[in-house]
Amino acid sequence: MALILLAEKDHKLGSALKQELARAGHETTTALTQEETLKFLSVRSYEIIILDMDIMRESDFDLINFIKQSQPMSEILLTTRIEEIEKAVRSLRRGAYMYFVKPFDSSDLLFGIESALKNLERSMAFREYERSAFIDMMGDSPAIRKMINLATKVAPTDSTVLLLGESGTGKEIIAEYIHRMSNRYDKPFLAINCSALPETLLESELFGYVKGAFTGAAGDRKGLFEEGNNGTIFLDEVGDMPLITQVKLLRVLENREVRRLGENKIIKVNVRIIAATNQDLLVAMQEKRFRDDLFFRLNVIQIKIPPLRERMDSLPSLIRYFIAKFNRRFNRKIREIDRQALFILANYQYPGNVRELENIIEHAVIMADDDVIRANSLPEYLQVIKKPMLALPSGMEEAVAAAASEAQPAEPEFITLSEMEKRLITDTLIKCGGNQTVAAEKLGISRSTLWRKMKEYNIRTSFAPEEVSVQ
C-alpha cells in the first residue's frame, strides 16, 4: 500500500481513479486545485503524487520544484493531454518520474505506481548505504555523530550551509555528502578554492565572461554558477574571498542571478551554495575583511567539523579507505600495516588533519616494498616516533624479554587494522574494569557502538579481577 496524493482537476476522472487506487490497496487523498494540493502537501508526506498538468497551469508557482523540496522522498507522476507532451518531457528533467497521456488505462497508472515505489525503495536503500559508509569512515565520536545528524537533516533542504573547521578536516567531503543526500544528488557538484586564485581569475571562474571582457578572453565562457545550475556549488576558504567578489556572491544568494564579466545581461541560476572556511569570520567582520550581510546569508546552517586529533576513533576506517583508494590508483595490493607503523600513526597529532593522513598513506603505499606498510614506508618526519618501553633496572630488560618469549609465542611482525581496533577496545575495557559505559567514554564512541564492536570481534563482557589494571 502507498500513500498517494491525487491532484486531478477533472472531478469525474479523479473519483474514478481514486476507486481504482483503493481497489489496489492504496490510500488516496484527492485535490481539485493547486491551493488544495499545497494544503495537503503541507500537512502530510506522500510516497506518490499524481499531478494533473492542468493544475500546474493555475499560477506561475513552480509546483514540481516545491514538491521535490518539501517531499524529497516521493515520486511525481504527471497526467497530461497529448498536445502538452513536450512540457511533460521538460518536467521529467525537473524531477518528475513519468507521465501519462490522457486518456490512459488505469492498469498503466498502477504499473507506473509500482515502478515508482520500487525506485523509491532503491533510492532509500542507496542513501542509507551511503550514510552508513560515511559514518564508518568519519568515526562515531559524539562530535561526529552531531555533525553527521545535522548534515543529514539539512541535506534534503535547499538551505545554505557554512562549514567551519581547521584546514584539512574534510570540509569538502562533508559538502559532497550533503550534496549526495540532497535532491540535487544527480546534478553537478562543483568546488572552487577561493584562496587559490587572484581576484579577477576567481570572478571569471565563478561568473564566466564574454569575448573581449579582458585580455585573453577569446570567446564566451560559462562560470561555475551556470555550469552547476540545479546542482551544488562548494566555495572552499570563502573567508579569503575579495570584498568586491563578496558583493557579487551576495547578489547570487539574494536574487539567484549572475552576470558574466563584460556584459549586463542577467542570467537566472538555481544552485545550492555550501561554503567553508578555517577562519574566524566574526573576527574578519570586525576587521572589515568580510561583509556582515554575506555572513548572515551564508550562516543559515552552521556545521563545525572537529579536527582529526579529537576523533581518533575514525583513524582505522580512514586508513582503510585511503589504502583502498591508493591501491586502485597505483595498482598496488597493500593488505596490512606492521605494529610499529600502526603505533606511529596512532600517536601522531595530525596538525594537517585528514588531508595530511591521506598524504601519509599515499606516500606509504608508494614506498612499501611489498604488500605491508612498515615504519620505513612512512614519511621520514614520522619515523622519529618510537614505541616506548618501560624503564627497567639494568639487566632486567633482557630478563623480562626472555621470560615473555618463553611464556607466549612471538607476536607477528604486523597486524591488521581490525586487530588493532580489537586490542584497543579490549585493553580499554580491562583498564576500566569491564565498565562498558566508562570504556565507551574513554574511546570517544557511543555505548551502542562499543557493544556492536564487542560483538563483531567476539570480545567478552567481563574480566577477572587480576586482569584489571590498578590506576
CATH architecture of the largest domain: 3-Layer(aba) Sandwich
What is the CATH class of the largest domain?
Answer: Alpha Beta
Q: At the third CATH level, what is the topology name of the largest domain?
A: Rossmann fold
Major beta sheet, strand line-up:
2-1-3-4-5
- Percentage of helical residues? 40-55%
What percent strand?
5-15%
Distance between the termini: 59 Å
SS-derived structural category: alpha/beta
Number of domains: 4
Number of helices: 20
Query: How many whole angstroms does the radius of gyration measure?
Result: 29 Å
Q: Can you tell me about this structure?
A:
The chain is of the alpha/beta class and 471 residues long. It folds into 4 domains: 3-123, Response regulator (Rossmann fold), CATH 3.40.50.2300; 139-306, P-loop containing nucleotide triphosphate hydrolases (Rossmann fold); 309-382, Helicase, Ruva Protein, domain 3, CATH 1.10.8; 416-467, Arc Repressor Mutant, subunit A (Orthogonal Bundle), CATH 1.10.10. It is 48% helix and 14% strand. It is built from 20 helices and 17 strands. The chain has helices at 11-23, 34-43, 53-56, 63-70, 85-93, 106-138, 142-154, 171-180, 199-207, 224-227, 243-255, 281-286, 292-298, 315-330, 339-346, 353-367, 396-407, 417-431, 436-443, 447-457; strands at residues 3-7, 27-31, 48-52, 75-80, 98-101, 161-164, 189-193, 208-209, 221-222, 232-236, 257-258, 267-268, 272-277, 301-304, 336-338, 372-373, 414-415. The strands form 5 sheets. It has a 5-stranded parallel beta sheet with strand order 2-1-3-4-5, sandwiched between helices. A 5-stranded parallel beta sheet has the order 7-10-13-6-14. β11 and β12 (267-268) form a beta hairpin. α14 (315-330) packs across α16 (353-367), α14 (315-330) runs antiparallel to α18 and α19 (436-443) crosses α20 (447-457). Mean pLDDT is 84; it is low at 388-414 and 463-471.
